[in-house]
Design a protein that fits this description.
It is built from 17 helices and 30 strands. The strands form eight sheets. The protein has a seven-stranded mixed sheet with strand order 1-7-8-10-11-13-12, covered by helices on one side.
Length: 559
């Protein structure tokens, strides 16, 4: 793996300003998070306006965001990490007053092919070489568990900030000992900037936060951190938001004092920022498509004006306006060589296309879903198996042909392991009902299954959609017990499967197999696979008054 060298890193923390003569102009020093009971290392006292009392406004360029899902991109295409930070680097250097602030918004360490090989460390290394200064926790930061994230935070030379992800044992921000902060303070030309972040409220439901991590309600956490930042004398408060943009909009409408909120959990793109309750909300999607640039005019009373530009990275590269970031590109190339060695090895072939498109795996039976759940069921010797469709990634239809390790890890990037539970028929019915409750949203909870089949009515009210469930060809018996194979994420209640979290564990995850490794091994053993669909999942229209049930698509007899 690439190594960190002092020459490659050359950290340019929050203030990146490069003057016309090529010199770095720093108008202040970083402050430590007051939540950690540390005194600011330099700068004006909160009770003394000092330079911040000057009537002369200053301009600070805010460049955002990240949300790259652990992906480095394709080195032969415009959308990659080296070009992305090259664009940010150039825009930071061109800031009108030589002051630039480069921030991320989380979901940066996972869920890519690379993440499954490097456990997120590759993104930390790449970000260390970039001008990024602050990032926040998204839900996917925890995909490899809290200990892996702690290691990544410890290796980060940028600062992780979060107002609502806490360690229940200490009451502090998660990974405080490794350098994370509830908020940070930075002074720029006499103006004190407060930077904090928020993770989605449902983070514990959709990823592996572990036993001791709590995620506070974003609105109450935001109100508390804003009050603390104001007490610390922050002139400008910047929120790195990994909330869905409608949630961010509601939050800033309810919580006074946030000057700027950037980022989005749901990958929306605004043509222009929105102004809500004196807060500038800027959203530019995810991964490498866009870079957002906000030039903030800051007076003694905070932000008094701003201008905005959204850069289309592909267009900028194609017109020759972007040079790849040298240090990032060097590390990128090293990781790519490592990936080729690790993943670009043919392990077998498929004689049929492999279906992993979201529209399929989150609404109907997928041949990959059926094949995978068959493997899980056999791995732990269970009666039945259930896999959340959201755990099957890549959103592609792979044509028949060779299969590499990369193909498998692309489809199964999460570090999930097989688990066996003892569940009642009532619990299983509740689990399947929950699984189809948000199918219209293509939610990742949708269940792919083995050893069983079910029919559901997508037009019926959520919670009342199941029309039939059978196990081994027999109707599901509510008072019977079944051995269920699933992944450890779902077994722990992930994706809202809380009804499974209380089930007796017959085979824990440390006795199970990493799903990607299981799939790779079975393909290597078989050499040739041909996954099929078998009618395990059927969408129907049910007229309960007449008892008539018909398939949603295609002809077929009543059942």
């Amino acid at each position: 793996m690439p190594s960190d060298t002092a020459g490659e890193i050359d950290r340019r923390r929050l203030l990146y300003g490069v003057g016309a003569a090529g010199t770095v102009t720093l108008a202040g020093c970083a402050f430590d998070d007051a939540a950690d009971d540390e005194e600011p290392s330099a700068g004006r006292d909160a009770d003394d306006p000092g330079e911040a009392g000057s009537a002369e406004p200053v301009t600070v360029r805010l460049l955002h965001d990240t949300h790259v899902h652990g992906s480095m991109g394709d080195p032969d295409e415009p959308l990659n990490v080296a070009n992305y930070f090259g664009l940010m680097d150039e825009q930071a250097a061109a800031a009108p007053t030589d002051n630039a602030l480069v921030v991320g918004n989380g979901d940066d360490l996972h869920t890519s092919v690379e993440s499954s090989v490097f456990d997120g460390a590759h993104m930390v290394s790449l970000f260390n070489a970039s001008p990024l200064a602050y990032d926040t926790f998204g839900n996917h930061e925890f995909d490899d568990g809290p200990e892996s994230l702690r290691e990544n935070v410890a290796d980060s030379e940028f600062t992780w900030v979060s107002a609502n992800v806490r360690d229940e044992r200490t009451g502090e921000v998660f990974a405080a000992a490794e350098g994370a902060k509830r908020y940070a303070l930075e002074e720029i030309d006499g103006r004190r900037f407060g930077i904090t972040g928020l993770a989605p409220a449902d983070t514990p439901d959709v990823t592996a936060v572990g036993e001791h991590v709590a995620v506070r309600d974003p609105e109450s956490a935001a109100a508390d951190v804003v009050a603390d930042l104001q007490e610390e004398g922050a002139d400008v408060i910047v929120l790195l938001s990994h909330l869905a943009s409608p949630v961010t909009e509601a939050l800033v409408a309810a919580v006074d004092g946030i000057d700027v909120a950037v980022g989005d959990h749901a990958a929306k793109v605004y043509d222009e920022p929105k102004e809500i309750n004196d807060t500038v909300v800027s959203v530019v999607g995810d991964e490498f498509e866009y870079v957002g640039r906000l030039d903030l005019t800051v007076g003694s009373d905070g932000v008094v004006d701003y201008s905005f530009e959204r850069y289309d990275l592909e267009a900028e590269v194609e017109r020759g306006a972007v040079e790849p970031h040298d240090a990032v590109r060097a590390r990128f190339e090293e990781y790519e060589r490592d990936l080729e060695t690790e993943l670009d090895v043919v392990i077998g072939e498929t004689t049929v296309p492999l279906e992993t498109r979201i529209e399929t795996v989150r609404s109907e039976e997928s041949n990959v879903g059926s094949w995978l759940t068959d493997l899980m069921r056999a791995d732990v010797d269970a009666d039945i198996a259930l896999q959340n469709g959201g755990g099957i990634r890549s959103d592609r239809r792979y044509e028949a042909g060779e299969i590499t390790r990369r193909t498998v890890v692309d489809i199964l990037p999460f570090p999930n392991r097989s688990v066996k539970l003892d569940v009642t028929g009532t619990t299983l019915r509740a689990a399947i009902e929950h699984g189809v409750s948000a199918v219209e949203e293509r939610h990742g909870r949708f269940p792919q299954v083995s050893g069983m089949s079910y029919a559901y009515d997508p037009d019926a009210p959520a919670g009342d959609r199941l029309e039939a469930v059978t196990v081994a060809g027999e109707p599901l018996a509510d008072d019977a017990t079944y051995e269920l194979a699933t992944n450890d994420f779902v077994a722990d209640g992930g994706d809202g499967y809380g009804m499974l979290a209380d089930a007796d564990v017959l085979a824990p995850s440390d006795e199970g197999t990493l799903l990607s490794a299981l799939a790779i091994e079975r393909i290597r053993e078989a050499e040739v696979i041909a996954p099929e669909t078998e009618g395990r999942i059927e969408a129907v229209r049910a007229d309960r008054a007449s008892g008539r049930i018909t398939p949603v698509t295609g002809p077929g007899p009543d059942s």
